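Notebook, p. 212. Picked up where the previous page left off. The plan for this session was modest: take the two constructs that came back from the sequencing core last week, fold each one, and keep the raw output in the notebook itself so nobody has to go hunting through shared drives later. Recording the first one now, exactly as returned: residue sequence, then the structure token string.
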Amino acid sequence: MKPDIFRLFLFIPDMKHSFLYDTDAWIICSILFVLMTGMVYLGLFLRHKTITSAEGLGPVEASLFGLLALLLAFTFGEADSRFDARRRIITTEANNIGTAILRADMYADSDRIAFRKDFARYVEARLNYYEAKRDEVKVAAAKEDANTHAASLWKRAASLSKDPANLAASNQMIPALNAMIDITTEREAASKATVPESILLLLFVISLCCSFFIGYCVAHDKRLNRLAVGGFIFLTTIVIYVIMDLDRPRRGIINLDSNQQYIRDLRTMLK
């Protein structure tokens, strides 16, 4: 844990072992909430120690809050677009597998039964890939299992394509299998496409700076409007939590279960 915290404060991201992505979002946002509150009172404390009549938002403070709003909107948009891409890919994968299963019916009964058995194993492997969540060992095992069954399906289709009697069926099955296998690479890439840590770290830093200026410059008569300040801190941390939750495809409240159901429904096609 110490090296990860060290990287966090020195802005040195490590994509394999990351404090931001290995730690639950609610823990990070809870720490951020406490730090933002502390920065507000630090700003208020320093204002008490200085002689100043400045009140309200000056140009610098207004620019900083505007930058925070812009960065929140940008980061939220980035996380949401990546989440939406993952949803579309899962739906496309379910359609590709379903198409390949249906095209197995173009073969003779013995070959069709063999295809469907391999498809049943492949579907279970793809379901296990999602249900493994954050367990890297189970994820790797599910990927290897799926690759094994995909290779078996491809080998069977390639072998049957040599028979002129299967020409029409092979012309339909081979492109379907190719699409089914290729989409797994897209899904893997989409799961790893997250908002860069440097952007999240910048978002945290600006949030803390804004909290400091609230205490130092915005408090009237050297007193805090606790409701307004608390609302700002709470809403900011909630938005950051949602951003991080959208950006984590294998955990959190916002998940892909509804789209994964399309792959689960393929089981009924194989009965």
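Okay, moving on. Second construct, recorded in the same format:
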Amino acid sequence: MPAFLDPNKPLATCASASCEGCEVSQKLHCHFRARDLAHFLLNALPPALLAGAGIVRVDWRWLVPWLIAALGYFGFVEIRVMCSHCPHYAELGTSSLKCWANYGSPKLWKYRPGPMSRAETFWFFGGFIVILIYPLVFLLIGAQWFLLAMYVLTTAGAALTLLKSFCSQCINFACPLNRVDDATRQAFFECNPTVAQAWDTSNKL
């Protein structure tokens, strides 16, 4: 099984016969490469490592529940409430995601085109906030001011980079962090009628 989707093959939801000359693929990340995954990891790992270090300096045993929570959230909960709405989730012949953010996460649920529900949005932000705030408690308790400052700065930097470089080109329009403009969304919908229909139906409910 290839590590990433064939960049020359349209997505399963796409009605186009070929990706050649497609203007949408020039504006959106329909396919991913190893360097996209590396870019994301280099952006996300610094705050995660600083958070882990801050917890360990207080008591390493508290690192275990944080790691379990993070793996459970990013590997399962987020996949259910947010990633299952993404066209990448609809790809056939793959049992795990091949995208930049949740690469390798198992596809345990069915594909759900269209927007997220209010409950899904709650769990998406709720889980994310818990993962981010948990280390802050230990950084404050331990008076680890330098680590705290670095954690806040790298987290802010990671968030800004995520929104500017990734969320502005992501085809998962259901994600609350998506920053793709309306014109580009419409162009994607025209190439992916089943996705467009799911959004149109939802908007009429």
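Notes on construct two before I forget. The chain has seven helices and no strands.
Flagging for discussion at group meeting.
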